Sequence to fold (469 residues):
Amino acid sequence: MGKSSRLKMAKNTNIRISLPAVCFVWQIAMIILFGVFIRYDEESDTHWIEHRRKKNISTNLENDFYYRYPSFQDVHVMIFVGFGFLMTFLKRYSFGGVGFNFLIAAFGIQWALLMQGWFHHLDEHDWKIKIGVENLINADFCVASCLIAYGACLGKVSPVQLMVLTLFGVTLFAVEEYIILELLHAKDAGGSMVIHTFGAYYGLTISWVLYRPLLSQSKHLQGSVYHSDVFAMIGTLFLWMYWPSFNSAIADHGDGQHRAVINTYLALASSVLTTFAISSISQNNGKLDMVHIQNATLAGGVAMGTASEFMITPYGSLIVGFCSGIVSTFGYLFLTPFMEKTLKIQDTCGIHNLHAMPGVIGGIVGAITAASASESVYGQEGLINTFDFKDAVANRTVNIQGGYQAAALFVAIAFGLVGGALVGGILKLPIWGDPADVNCFDDDVYWEVIVFFFFLNELKKKEPANFTS
Fold:
């Protein structure tokens, strides 16, 4: 081995100083910023009683908590359990998958409450951010985009790099979300564009900038084993079950939220069948690939995000799920190898197939569905309520709305690509303690796993036939 090769492999991954410093300093910064800016909103403050009397609200059940908390709970489980366990499929990177997911989500929700608050909820009278349960849901949504980006870099970056990725990712998300929802007045209840498309292209571009030419040295760790796939499937099932809550969590009370649940429920079911079908037909022996089942079965939920509260009809939802399941599975079969070999994009979790392409499909479906909306289907009041044709956009037509929906998709992609390139350049600096190519996808770099692997090696000695991989 040449001297240059040894230097490339010799990386300092000791984060004993850098990780505690980042965690302590940033958490103290959060405490200070929360002390200056964050306050309870009128529905979580002790003045709620006075607010009830002033607004002639008859019961505490009118408090937004009782409408939103069940959805918040479901979304919260998706963020910490669903995304976390979905990333445990690598044979030697389960700790990093679920543990670093926990770390960056916990930091991200705090930073998101501030960033989204400054853009959406800053009280012009006292310059405070008033938060309630809906803010918590939106903070989880914001963090989801960073967790998606993490999927492309899984096993190849240090926890310090992930904290930096999240810091900038949340900031970019808040700006992008403000442009799409407030300036363009596009609708995206389930975040096909704002969350999935942005997060996926953000992560893919970072992975492209951080390309590792010698990653093949750790190729033997880039696969799964039986038990790691089972753990990842737990994450899949949590995500699949709660995705209707994700897409409906911040939809309008009443028919909009109800419709979003139905549409997402049907799209998810449809994508499962097409995923199983394509996975089986793609193999000569007809056997199923667990990678497809863990990921592409969720594509219907991603693709239904933008149009979830629109009158897309139940059979339309099935069509969206049908198509997205096929596209996502084919992505794993053909696009992932092509992207790694030709485009130099090493996408560990295949987020291009689960989030990027279905997210773009969702944005296109949302634009078409919005442009084709009519009073005969929605009713006059229903049309105004669904698309919020009020105030500054009171005179907007559905055709114009469709155009703005399409523009929003391009904004999400642009923020992901440009933001990912800039942040990737920062993360490429040799100061973050990232692993060498030969040590990627291995928990032993950042986690204390000696006891675990001692027992694993003992088990290998006793039952070598079970560890042929």
The radius of gyration is 23 Å. The longest strand covers residues 38-40. Confidence is low (pLDDT under 50) at residues 1-8.
